[in-house]
Amino acid sequence: MVTAPPGSASPQTIKVAVLDLYDNVPNQGMRCIKQILQETDVELDRVHLEYDVFDCRHRNEFPDADEYDLYVSTGGPGSPFDGEGKEWEASYFRLVDKLWNHNQTHSDHKKYVFFICHSFQMMCRHFELGHVTKRRSTSFGILPIHKTAEGLHDPFFHALPDPFFAVDSRDWQVVQPNFARLRELGGHVISLEKIRPHIDLERAVMAIRISNEFFGTQFHPEADAIGMNIYFQQEEKRRSVIDNFGEQKYWDMINHLNDPDKIALTYQSILPNFLKSSITKLAQASV
Predict the structure, then answer these.
(1) Quick count: other Cβ atoms within 10 Å of Cβ 254?
(2) Nearest CA to 221 among 278, 276, 145, 128?
(3) Mean pLDDT throughout 72-99?
(4) Is the dihedral of CA 113, 118, 124, 127 positive or negative?
(5) How far from the centroid of its chain's Cα atoms is residue 65's Cα?
(6) What's the distance, Cα to Cα, between the start and end of the chain in Å?
(7) d(C-alpha 215, C-alpha 136), whole Å
(8) How far, in Å, CA of 160 to CA of 176, rounded?
(9) Which of 186, 191, 262, 273 could form a disulfide bond with 156, CB atoms 3.0-4.6 angstroms apart?
């Protein structure tokens, strides 16, 4: 339970900006992110979570860096290089730089950012944290993800087994992490993709803690089992998965969705832990 500072006369409001990079493409991610924010708000004691959505990629809408406390930057379709030379990407990276620079010059009331999938790839490009490249084939499904030594002790992952399971859906990847740059920023690689002993390819980076305030995942920690189950049992979506990945992949995914120790546990852990940890620090900073 996250509480406001003792003696607070009224609930403290924590403001969240959701940075929408879906480019007006229908998705399940936004529903899941809003759902987690609403569920977290219900659990708060004397702290109120308020959020706004900004259509960054489609409409070039961006929040004021000073107005919001937390930022959740979404996944999205296409290449993480699609925005090169476009106004929205320049605006996005200006915002990221403002938030980062704010944290370097303010010892209290930090800004907290969570990057998901497409945003994670863009963040790795921007901070030069690794090599962002196209995969040989699409990674899709509910797949095992392994913690690194740092990940075993990371507070956002503490409730998860090793490996844990998450929704993975991507044509791009981050490999060859730049450890010198990570050390410079104080960051760590937190998890790697599944072990593939029969494939002679480097395992992709799946999560990075860039700082105490900036965190990103290549996978989708926001995906919920119930909603995804309904979504993938629609005939059009079922047929699309079977046609593209095979019937075995489809049924493996449905079985994982129904397993409470798979993505249901991931959904309950990573993004909620980020929110609660950040809110606790913001509440303490206001004392």
Answers:
(1) 16
(2) 145
(3) 97
(4) negative
(5) 19
(6) 17
(7) 26
(8) 25
(9) 273
- For the whole prediction, is pTM greater than 0.90? yes
- Closest of 129, 135, 242, 214 to residue 179, by C-alpha: 129
> Are 189 and 152 within 8 A, CB to CB?
no
Place of tokens 């090793």: 162
Instruction: List, edge to edge, every strand of the sheet that includes 164-175.
Output: 47-55, 12-20, 70-73, 112-116, 214-217, 205-209, 188-193, 131-147, 164-175
Residue 236 Cα to chain centre, angstroms: 27
Residue 232: predicted pLDDT: 79
Q: What is the DSSP letter of 220?
A: B
- With cut-offs at 50, 70 and 90, classify the pLDDT of residue 208: very high
Backbone angles phi, psi at 215, to 5 degrees: -145, 140
Angstrom distance (rounded) from CA 180 to CA 175 = 14
Q: Provide the CATH number for the domain formed by 12-134+145-158+172-223+265-285 in this structure.
A: 3.40.50.880
CB within 8 A of 19, min separation 6: which ones?
Answer: 54, 56, 62, 63, 71, 72, 73, 74, 92, 95, 119
Q: Please, are residues 91 and 47 in contact by the beta-carbon 8 Å criterion?
A: no
Give the length of the chain. Answer: 287
What share of residues in the chain are helix, strand, coil (percent, to 5)?
A: 40, 25, 35
Task: Give the Cα-Cα-Cα angle 103, 106, 111 (nearest 5 degrees).
Answer: 40
257 falls in which pLDDT band (50, 70, 90)?
confident
* Residue 6: predicted pLDDT: 59
Please write the tens of the pLDDT for every residue from 182-204. Answer: 999 999 999 999 887 777 678 99
Element (H, E) at 91: helix 87-105
- 173 close to 132: Cβ distance less than 8 angstroms: yes
| Torsion on CA atoms 68, 263, 151, 107, rounded to nearest 10 | 10
